[in-house]
Each structure stands twice: as C-alpha cells, then as structure tokens.
Amino acid sequence: MERSVRSVDRAAKWTREQIQERVRGLGRWFHNIDLGGVKTAPDHFLGDYPAFKWKSFAHAIPADLTGKTVLDIGCNAGFYSLEMKRRGAARVLGIDSDDDYLAQARFAAEVSGADIEFRNVSVYDVGSLGERFDLVLFMGVLYHLRHPLLALDLLHEHVVGQTLVFQSMQRGSAEVTPLQEDYPFSEKRIFDEVGYPRLHFVEHSYSHDPTNWWVPNRACAEAMLRSAGFEIVNHPEPEVYICRRREKADGAPGAVYPGRRAGMKGEQA
Fold first, then answer.
1. 1-40 tens-digit pLDDT
2. Three-state DSSP class for residue 236
3. Pick from 33, 10, 13: which is nearest to 23 by CA?
4. Which of 57, 73, 153, 205 has its CA 20 to 30 A from that of 132?
C-alpha cells in the first residue's frame, strides 16, 4: 500500500495534457502503457500490447518479488520493468540498446512513481554488469539478434542467477519431434521432420522490420534454451518459457568457441 500511495504522489505533478504532450514528443511507442489515463500506443497493430501477452503468463511469475533483483533485457519502454516493480522487486534494471526506447522507459517510470534504473547496454555486453539477478526477463529479443545462441550463452554465463523468463516469436510447426542424442552421418530424413528444431533466417525483412533476423519453431526455441544451460520448468503461454539455470558440465560448449577436439579425423587438438 505504501508503494501505491507514493506512486500517486509522484505522478500528481503531471497533468493529463502534459503527459499527452510528452508521449507525443517521445516518438512512436511499441509498448502500450497507461500513464495517468494516457495510452502510449492505443493503435498498436497487435492490440493492447504487451498487456494482453502479460495477462497470459503473469500467474507463472511470483506475485511477491520482495527482496528480489530483476534484470529486464530489451526493456523497450519498460512495461515489464514496471510490472516487476509493482510486485515489490527490491531492484529492477532495464537495459536496451535503443536510446529512444530508454527515454520512453524513464518517462513511464517517472510518471508511474517507480524507482527503476535504465541503461544502454547491449545483450552481448551483459557481462559488464558484473552481477547476477534473481529473475531475468528476455522477452521479444532473440529474433532481433544476429547471434541468438551466443546471447543465451552470455545470459547463462553472466547474469541469470535463478530464473529466466524467455519469450520469442515462433513460426513453423508447433510439433516437437523426440530426438536421439546422436545420428550417423548417413541419416538425412530426420531433418525433414516437421518437429525438428529449425531456426528460420530472414535475409531482408519480416513484418516490415529489418531487425527480425532469426525466427525459431517451437522445437528450436526449447532446444536452444536447453543447450544454453536452462531447464524449462513451465510453459504457461505458447511463446513463453519459465526456465531454471543449471550448471553446465565441465567442457560443455558455451559463449567461447571450445576449439577442436582431440581425436577428430584429420585434425589435431
């Protein structure tokens, strides 16, 4: 209750007209956030986004985050950062590589009376943060990256302390084909299975967005998470996974190329 009262007091210095003017001045918003009755993206092509998405998996995240630290990677205008703070997180850090989105996020937090820190940090530079977080959000980022598996490896290596909340756009089959751990070189048919992990490459643009690079099917999203060292513990929504960080076995491939293995035909260690 105390947090709610303080938020109202801080937001009171902004009139509706001032909020509307500032929202317009900050450019086009991708997150539709209600700021004192002003919607930041009321005509979003996906509808009330990301609120409708949040409602489909909010139950899978603890309602009480008191004492927890949260990192929101690719925070955009800060919708999820605000939701984590509303659940009582002791510290919320939102990072993005787009200064326009960060300006929107800082304004949204100010109007909402939320004490949230925002920084311009690339996902490939998360190691520079120098700390692990209890809860890491990685929502809607993977398919915008040219090096998606590297990013997941870096999250595991540097910032995820306990839980990763992952979401990615998916295309292709929702089937997941059970796979063996290895196949002979002569096996080719397995790659034609509709449920085989596939990461679709977008050479030019998809949905008028040239930053959409790689789009996984369901099998691929799940396989990539496991490969990076995350155990899927809940799948509350078709694109959302709640994952627990697990330690990788010694010598398991990670963010650094492991080098050539001894004994490979025609090669040396």
1. 334 434 444 545 889 999 999 999 999 999 999 999 999 9
2. strand
3. 33
4. 57
Q: Which string of DSSP letters, residue by residue, matches 152-201?
A: HHHIIIIIEEEEEEEE----S--------S---TT--GGGG-TTS--EEE
- Nearest to 238, CA basis, from 216, 208, 263, 261: 216
- Sequence-distant (≥ 6) Cβ neighbours of residue 151 within 8 angstroms: 123, 124, 141, 142, 145
pTM score of the predicted model? 0.88
- Compute CA distances 119 → 77, 98, 128, 265, whole Å: 12, 10, 12, 47
Measured between alpha carbons, how far is 134 from 159 in angstroms, rounded to an integer?
Answer: 9
Nearest 5°: CA angle at 124, between 83 and 170?
60
- R_g over Cα of the chain: 21
pLDDT digits (tens, 9 = 90+) for 234-247: 999 999 999 999 98
Q: What type of residue sits at position 200?
A: H
- What pLDDT was estimated at residue 249? 72
Q: What is the pLDDT of residues 48-79, one digit of tens each?
A: 999 999 999 999 999 999 999 999 999 999 99
Q: Three-state DSSP class for 94? A: strand
Do 56 and 47 meet the contact criterion of CB atoms below 8 Å apart? Answer: no
List domains and CATH numbers for the chain.
2-6+62-180+188-245 (3.40.50.150)
Q: What are phi and psi of 161, to 5 degrees?
A: -90, -45
Residue 18: count other Cβ atoms within 10 Å of its Cβ: 13
